[in-house]
Design goal:
Blueprint: H1 2-29, H2 61-64, E1 93-102, E2 105-114, H3 118-131, E3 135-139, E4 143-148, E5 151-159, E6 165-174
Antiparallel strand pairs: 1-2, 2-6, 3-4, 4-5, 5-6
Length: 176
């Protein structure tokens, strides 16, 4: 029983660490040289009046779709600096991606939607990463960390609310 609790605690701790690192990595890809943006001018108060009954209101394209608008600087695509030796799960579609150079390291992050279970996705990545020259440093029921020379990657998989899996891949290649 104590071993089961320890294992559960370790998985929970790894999940929290992985999630924290994911948010940190995404935040860091948006960082610049450390300069601060000037404060935005205060918005003037405006009076709102409802449109007349015969007025039509057009919504922006992103607001009229089922998907919300992506944050500035992100695309629903694999970033151009995403390592070519990390495979994309067959049939998976990118839903969010960004890449860039931060402090001398090429970093990229991508979120994929796959129609397979988390177990199938993790099994695929464990074997494909090794086939592509990566060393799997750690693997569990939700994530994989791997390295290849000066490159590191972290993959996290979770069940999707709509079926299948959400796959998050974060990479870093030191260029200094």
């Amino acid at each position: 029983m104590a071993r089961s609790r320890t294992k559960s605690f370790n998985v929970s701790r790894l999940f929290a660490t992985t999630l924290s690192l994911t948010f940190l990595a995404v935040a860091l890809t948006g960082c610049d040289s450390g300069t601060q943006e000037p404060e935005a001018p205060a918005a003037e108060a405006t009076e709102y009046s409802a449109p007349a009954a015969d007025d039509s209101v057009e919504l922006p394209a992103a607001a009229s779709d089922d998907m919300p608008a992506l944050p500035e600087g992100f695309e629903a695509a694999i970033p151009s600096n995403f390592p070519s030796n990390i495979p994309v799960f067959p049939g998976a579609a990118p839903t969010l991606g960004r890449g860039g150079n931060v402090d001398g390291s090429e970093r990229s992050g991508v979120q994929l939607k796959a129609d397979a279970s988390p177990t199938e996705v993790l099994s695929y990545y464990e074997s494909e990463l090794v086939s592509n020259g990566w060393t799997v440093d750690e693997s569990n029921a939700m994530s994989i960390t791997a390295s290849n020379g000066d490159s590191e990657m972290m993959l996290f998989v979770s069940p999707s609310a709509t079926g299948g899996s959400e796959v998050y891949v974060i990479t870093e290649q030191k260029t200094n």
